[in-house]
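Reopening this one. Same input as before:
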Amino acid sequence: MDRVTTDRRLSMTQQLVVDLTQQILAGELPAGSKLPTEQVIIKERGVSRTVVREAMSRLQAEGLVETRHGIGTFVVDTARPGDFQGGKHVKGGTHDALAVIELRLSLEVEAAGIAAQRATPQQLLMMREALDAANELDAADSESARKDFEFHLLIAQCTGNSFFIDAMTHVGNTLIAVVQQAAPAVTNENRALVIREREQIHAALTRCDAEAARASMRLHLINMLRRIRGVVELAEQ
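Same output, byte for byte:
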């Protein structure tokens, strides 16, 4: 198999993984539901059996689905983003939310820089649509957190690097929960700031400006870290 064919197969596999992950996290494919059969996916998406099987293997590795021999592949009953409400927190508490943002700083800043050099017009359009949807929702709306994650996942997808994509996919529910936890600290004033920060990221990606994309993503995540710290301080008073 030549390099071009291999790269194309990997790209199609990544796209299928991202699409199915988004459907699972958004609740379009709820826990316990059965995924379409291999034959159906092949026909609907025009991909090979190898692409479908590689995508299913990745989803299983991320703990999102399980295959029951002779029956099919099902969405695993894991913690749903909507479960993180009120006094419930990520893992051991809000302090873990700070750790997640620190992880994102090490991961997403560089992903943004790479994405600025590799994003296609179609990917930028998808990102624009996700961003518009996120901007229209109130911070307290549970759907807002999912749309925010979709925007960030699309950036990882633009890198074309399966490790960035897999890392974002793996911590998807946690990232959504962190955004939901930050919601109480988002006032009307800094809500506008959040929107502006995301717009700056998208603008840098559209200009193919890698350094601006890194700087914009870093600023966005550092400000999110500050908002989460505000929640921690309030909880400890």
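So the earlier flakiness isn't reproducible anymore. For the record, The beta strands are 65-68, 72-75.
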